[in-house]
Structures
1.
Amino acid sequence: MSTPPSPADSRVFPVRYGPEKPARADEPWPNNLGLSGSGQVVVTAESVTFTGGQTSGDGSRRRFALSDIANVGFGQEGNVIAVRTQHDEREVYLYMASSEDARALLEMLPKTTTPEFLERQRQHQKFRENLKVIAPRAPVTPAIIGVNVTLFVVMLFAGAGLVTVDSHVHLDYGANYGPYTWNGQEWRLLTAAFIHFGVIHLAFNMYALYDGGSWTERLYGSTRFAVIYLLSALAGNVVSGWWDDTRLTAGASGAVFGVYGALLAFFARRRRDIPMDLLKSVGRGAATLLVYSLAMGAVMPIVDNSAHVGGLLVGTASGYLLARPFEPAARAVARPWQVAAVVAGVCVALGFLAAWR
């Protein structure tokens, strides 16, 4: 660890560190130092050091050499300053105590702006403008969450149970059970995706859907997102019944896996339409969730991993086929035949799988 500068050759600013996650999906949020809460910025003739706050990670990364600082940002509203390094992409977001402090700190920081940073800013600006035109809202995701929560409450009054469940109630409301599903009640392949075994099951699936669904819906558009969601839900339950037709299953996890698969498929096919830092951070988070959930399912017999895999495969495939350029002009033409072709292809494939039980 380096020796802190003495008060004689330094200036100290009280600050509050910005959060590490963006407030909006389209917003780059520069704070990857593991800092939060209140702290101090110590500026000397050679370095800037960030101290205090709630910290995690490597403390040595919180000292920036002045010669390595570039692309400093300033938002006059709220006296916000973003301090960045140009070589190892460290960033920290600062709320200054006053406008005087903000101006004083800016005067002490380098004024260098790199071409790479300007290109990154251009990409973010274009992405935000396109997002505002193409998909200012994501109404389907909260609607699906609302349906799941409403049905859960209805089933609670029917005796399904808040934590300890009554499987008979779930069966009555449309859970997936092979002897019923494959003998004239195929509608259970969809209804089961809106039924949950207890509040913990519901909460985990709805949180995952909320976290990834709004991103995916805005990238694909609400109609295509709804199609991907329903196809993934259907696929998860078909594969589950094909794998074990004696098991009672329910839940939105197959559909949620499909949503995350579609998100990664969009990034893979339209990577030039997404700012690189957003692509990396969101893509890494989605991939981590999928790997972790599949690993947990592999060691926990209670988890229906076959439904997860089925939803993931169909969500990824249909998402890849339905991904369009993220440009207003490309979205002006609806191309319903493309959606119909994907729906038909997936349904035919699932029909063959169901017949091969």
2.
Amino acid sequence: MLRRYRIAFMVNEPKFPLDEVGDSSNLFALALLSFVVGAFAGLVASAFRLLLRSADDWRAVVIAQAHPWGWLGLSLVVGGVALVAALAAWLVFRVAPQASGSGIPHVEQQFQGGSSGEPLSIIAVKFFGGVLAIGGGFALGREGPTVQMGGSIGQLIGRAFRRTPNECRVLLAAGAGAGLATAFNAPIAGAVFVLEELVGSFDIAVTVATLGASASAIAVSRVFFGQSPDFHVPVSGFVEFGDLPVSMLFGIAMGFVGVIYNRIILAALKLSASFSHLHGTVRAGAIGASVGLIGWFAPSLIGGGDNLTQQALDAQGSLAAVASTLALRFLLGPLCYAARTPGGLFAPMITIGSQAGFVFFLLWSHLLAFTAALPQQFAIVGMASIFAAVVRAPVTGIILAVELTGSFSLFLPLLGATFAAAATARLLKDPPIYESLRRVH
């Protein structure tokens, strides 16, 4: 009996076991190279973010100027988004199939020792294809491309300095963490994500290299984006213990939401695959046309969704408006992901979590004046809890939400909600999304 309990509480085996990396001199060399990897990853990811920002502005101007043209303007917007989506998909299918979708499942497969494709081709397709797809209005995140580009940069630098295959895997992981860190201006979340999701264990070589790469990547990116968190949230006091049960109840609800979201993503991919008689560029163009149609009537509802996340954090919008936006984005993200163009899941997921938190607050406060907590606090908790339910990486979700908003006073509700969300999703026997996507890809 005692032996059975001891086994039950043993630490899980790493997802992808990593042999020890040589002696201390090799570790020191990797640490130095990790700064180089991070600097290049930070530069490429920063350029990617700047281009996406310009594309968002340009898209809004084009849609606004096309409206006076009536049906002709509508046709130009719908056709334009369809065209750029088809071009992004063509780059993937023609040049680098490994650059499709988020890229994180491919990085995990590559870290495991699987086929990786040509790193330079992946970087080029992920960069330009991502700008076309996300800049064109697809509800996809910038972090998927930056993670895969960062990992490919780590692989290239490892090869250039003739490191061993194991050491190249370490630099691949370090570059991936640097890419995530730059995408969200979140250096700790980038490093923790590598250990929690990519490696699945604490490895000293990966830890040192990832921290070094994240640090140098953030040093580069903050030249362009400054020191402030990505989202602006008023400073609030520490949440009282009485709000913990409500946070856990919200986390349970988000566990169900995350499971449903996972299944919709997989269903969208399956539906897209059922049209395999159509070329991938045609399927992506059709999805792009639907995105363009939504953008014509509601330009703010398409794209990565940072504007919608900020609105939820600012507690802007009525219950009906936020709930309808949440329902639309809940379906639009998986639909866009099914196009297989470059683009990640984190940013749309964070948007859904923040809006769900705001909706939960409005509903609950309408029924019961239960708390002195602010609506944006539940929006932040929603960001972390849906991450825990979908990705099954609760520590990364907590740190990412804190670094994105600078809300260091919310650790108590964040802990309670992410615990409840991850446990609920696990009890429902729903696999983490990247585990499911590795099987699909």
3.
Amino acid sequence: MSGIEARFRLDLGGFALDAAFRLPGRGVAAIFGPSGAGKSTLLRCVAGLERAAHGYLDVNGAHWEDTNAGLFVPTHRRSLGYVLQEPSLFPHLTVRQNLRFGTIRRRADATVVDEEQAIAWLGIGNLLDRRPDRLSGGEKQRVAIARALFTGPRLLLLDEPLSGLDEASKAEILPYLDRLHRELSIPALYVSHSRGEVMRLADQVVLLEAGRVRAVGPVDEVSTLPGVVFGRPDETGAIAQAEVAEHDAEFGLTYLDFAGGRLSLPADAGLQPGNTVRVQFLARDISLTRKRPEQTSILNVLPGRVTEIRDAESTLPIVAVDVAGTLLLARITRKSLVSLALEPGVEVFAQIKGVALLT
């Protein structure tokens, strides 16, 4: 069986977890939700650190838990790599020795991970002879992730690995997590309450609210579902995959192509034609018009069709617009909604005032 199938019911007195989901057998799946939603509890259930009254877990054919069948594989026998908020490196050992400890814990049925490749993915080759007290916060967390990979896990668990870092350290480690996300062949569950991290790093998302799964699926689909609270109201928006097409030296622009058309962004020398990137369209940065504007300073204007009006009676309703198969969300005033006579099926032009690169 390929993929992750999980079902857990657990009562902790003042909190109850009742969560079930299925995920692909590869890629990063974020467990996302507000504080107190049950994210870390769910991860502990997956790890076998919390024993659910009713539990089931299968990871790419490895059957670790089934209450009905009397099956419960203890944590030390689950082929897991577990990375916590605190790196928990051995202070008296060098980075190389800490990594070697990961190989000692490797099980006979471990997934083969190329150690040199993992070191390169996480950019720690120059740190191997240092002790943890000579590392920055971001460097320690990268070493902790590499050590987890050295165990040869079938599943990598990351419990808010960036929450203990300052902004500079987060900025330092994110490009390495991007690369890990692209290269890793095993599945990873990534707990976070940061929408930005999820939008940048995750392929799938399990959205938790008060111990229940509110939504599960590809991150681009879940982020635009009606009635789903996915971060703060000002973060409402959509994401899409795009390919770098070319650079325009004359005007200092980089052009990206995605399913909905071509986007113009300020030049980014770090992007090469052919690179795949993830872009974000915030609802607050999109305005709508019934006619294509002939003279405007806004470079990104795309034709689309209204599919849905959300919260139509509110002061700032959300208009969902299908742009060649990509769903964009526009937050406009109710007066604009009425004056433009917007309703499902109406053809519009989305004027995109800002596009954010997430990778």
4.
Amino acid sequence: MAHTSCTPDWPEPSRYGEKDVEFETLAASFPELGVLEIPNGYVYGEDAWIYTSARDLLPEFSWHGADVQYIRVPGRLRNIKKLDGVCLSIASIWASFVYAHFSLDSLPRLKLFQDAGFSLDDVDHVYCTQTLSKHATFLFERLEIPESKIIWAHADTCLQAKTLLVPSYPGVCRNYQKWVVDYLRELVPFPQQAQTRRLFVTRQGVNRNPVNLERIHEIMRSSGFEIYDPENSDEQYRDFHEAEIVVGVHGSGLTNLVFCQPGTRVLELIPSDQMYPYFYTLSVAARLNYSYLLCQSTGHRKESRIGGSPFDLHIDEHALEHAVRALVG
């Protein structure tokens, strides 16, 4: 076992606007975390589905956890390649194309492996999520996994290892713990420095954009905010570390809140069609000053939906102006 079970303390977040957010799937507890050793175990695909030697799926090692009704895996294992020796899997579902899942669900598995008393010297192979951007590559390289041991996860890859080591999913889906933040900050250490920047994290070019975006940009610029696109920066980590205030619509662009200094003020613009606690719990774990403004989505999905909302949203301009005045002080 690497980490004991614990009960989180979720402080009441500050609200702007008239409507409360009732976060979906806010964790009541975090389970014990560790590393499972599976003789002749299988790891399959870019989402790293884990199977026993009898080909029984172990869903608790994926983001879905107990929500097995949402799992979609191929009907049978195929293209199996057998590996001698010991293989560690740190790949994770959706990490191959979503930066947040790569950073927060995949990389911390190595920390669990190490906290359980193992080292990379104990394994012959490491099954890893393929990096999807220069920022992900930068973080991955900080793990210092020997290149000779890396096996990149692909959709058609199925490995059977003589001994398969599988760290737990690092927590509970959509909920993050302090140790995850601390580990990522250790990978990219910064000296404490002045917080002088105000970032409005944009989502231009993808879904969940404000329908009144031009007016929102005017409001933010008038209060000294940069219109900040993380993909246009070579040093996202430093940018967030230098921020005194971060405002943004719910999405992977807020992942680097982990590199903000404790006490940084955060305003998350939450779509009414996606009231997930990812960045609330991440902010709590990072010791940030979190607040939210609930925004009306242009459409709503069925109750059984999963994944990100495809709909844009309308931001109440007066509520945003009030929130920004309070944040700026």
